[in-house]
Description:
alpha+beta
Amino acid sequence: MLCTLLLTSACTNKKATEEPKKEVLDTIPMLVTQVQQSSRLYTTEYRIHKIITHDDEMKLSGSIMKKDFSVNLPLGERRIAIPMDATLKAYIDMSTFSEKNIQKDGKKLIVTLPDPKIVLTSTKIDHKGVKEYVALTRRNFTDAELTSYEAQGRKQILNAIPQMGIIQQAQESAARQLVPIFTTMGYKDADITISFRKKFTLHDLPSLLDTRKEG
């Protein structure tokens, strides 16, 4: 009788110390609802300092005896360096997230995010920091020229996006924000995969850019 009591007690203590298993309580619609609540998910912000440079020389060109020539004229040089600060932000619009973005394979959860969007939220010229040299024989840079150089600087920043790693960081940041939603619903970190539908390149850039400025 004593042995039976001890055995029963041991089994009871073992059950009491066992950690209760975490059950997956969600359904796909519940997951979608939870993710959609994130609305616009800002994932990455880059602050960029760029020096826009431009230099040109006055040239004399023409032809002599049917031979073309081009000569740089002395004292005809102009140079300018324009400091510019810019802010880039990446975000994911979760309002388009649906059941098509989620796949379940047993205990594993595969989440494909909507395509990221990138917006150049602001650009600012440091006018006090502008350095220029204009030869006596040349006219000063005009406001129209400075505006054109600023536009060139913005374009260079946008073209450099694929090399910045901003898209990869957007994916990693989105994962850090979304994984806790899934783990609270019973999934393990190791069973969750979050990715974009493809690896984006420079050719995809036009479709990823949001041309609307935001503060």
